[in-house]
Amino acid sequence: MRLDATTDMKVNEVARSIKNMEIRGAGLIARSAAEALKHSAKEFQGEDLTALMRKLEESKDILVGSRPTAISLWNAVQATLRGSQEATDVEELRNIVVFNADRFVKRSSEAVQLIGKFGAKRLKDDMKILTHCNSKAALSVIKNAHSRGMNIEVYATESRPWRQGILTVKELSDVGIPCTLIIDSAVRWAMKDVDAVFVGADTICSNGALINKIGTSQIAMAASDSRVPFMVCAETYKFSPRTLSGEMVEIEERDASEVIDAKLLPPGVKIRNPVFDATPPEYIDSLITELGVISPYAAYEVIVREFGQASIFEEMGD
Ligand code: RI2
User: Fold this and answer.
1) Residue of 8, 184, 202, 285 with catalytic role
2) What digits encode the pLDDT tens for the residues 212-242?
3) Is residue 205 among the annotated active site residues?
4) What is the pLDDT of residue 315?
5) Topology of domain 121-315, CATH
6) Protein fold of 9-111
7) CA gap 8, 230 in Å, rounded
8) Pocket around ligand 1: residues whose beta carbon is below 6 Å from it?
9) 3-state DSSP call for residue 40?
10) pLDDT at 135 > cutoff 50
11) pLDDT tens by residue, 148-177
12) In a 10 Å sphere around its CB, with 0-12 CB exposed, 13-18 middle and 19+ buried, how is residue 166 labelled?
């Protein structure tokens, strides 16, 4: 990541916080990036339109470079800068960016609420739900069902190495939902008691595959083996127009020190720390989006509807 002294501090600060996971979760990093660009536009001094445009482009690169996998980040900055080329002066450009950022943040938050409502209709009283990592979208479903009076219990995976499962059990316990924390390798053991799995998404590919927290694909396989429905909660800005143009999703690999102190291991032992994995569409029962509950095989239609096929290829330079 390039940290540029000429770019305003807010953008650098947000990018740094996304990189070191103080700001995390695919939805939150997207909303934070939109807010950072808005701040950049608002704080700009002077009347030089080209200078503001350059500053926003630099800010966009810094933000997008902070984490490589979640398409939500890229979609957020694209949505925030949409139409900026048409601005004829600084004031107009500023207004475009502020309007777009506010709209993105509002729609993104509303999408999480709608996903909660749609997803809750798939739950019934006394169900046991398994969730992985800490997804605002997936937890929105569980909380919505609970707020309608359903008695729901949750198995939350620890989600090594960052242990986001602890955030999940805190968040759910706070509203009175009974939780059981399990280590990641206990998923298959727990599946005998589980009625449905609900997870979030970092990216939905054009073929319907899900990119989500490492371990998600093993959970999907265990669920499939036990005939337990595997549901994915994904706002439409988690769908990747880039995969439609043939790009592969880059899987982030973080520092080995997050897994274990290398000094505790014999010399020469390698450590790998991949952050996400891919779950093929055949393991996914439904995608719960703000547009409704759909098949993973409808991902192409969602991408074209939301981003427009022609503009996708233009943006990618194809
Ligand atoms: P929401 C997280 O990534 C998890 O993979 C989670 O499933 C996903 O983002 C979506 O989260 P990380 O930032 O947008 O913890 O639903 O690496 O909150």
Assistant:
1) 202
2) 999 999 999 999 999 999 999 999 999 999 9
3) no
4) 75
5) Rossmann fold (3.40.50)
6) Four Helix Bundle (Hemerythrin (Met), subunit A) (1.20.120)
7) 43
8) 24-27, 133, 135-137, 164, 199-202, 212-213, 275
9) helix
10) yes
11) 999 999 999 999 999 999 999 999 999 999
12) middle
Are the CB atoms for 82 and 97 separated by under 8 Å?
Answer: no
Domain boundaries, the chain: 9-111, 121-315
For residue 212, count CB atoms less than 10 angstroms from its CB and return exposed for 0-12, middle for 13-18, buried for 19 or more: buried
What is the model's pTM? Answer: 0.95
Q: Over 80: is that where the pLDDT of 9 sits? A: no
Query: CA 52, CA 172: separation in Å to the nearest integer?
Result: 43
Burial of 280 (0-12, 13-18, 19+ CB in 10 A): middle
d(CA 276, CA 253): 8
SS3 content of the chain, % helix, strand, coil (to 5): 55, 15, 35
* pLDDT at residue 1, rounded to an integer: 37
Q: Please indicate whether residue 233 is annotated as part of the active site.
A: no
- Candidate of 14, 22, 213, 275 to mutate for ligand 1, largest count of ligand atoms within 8 Å of Cβ: 213
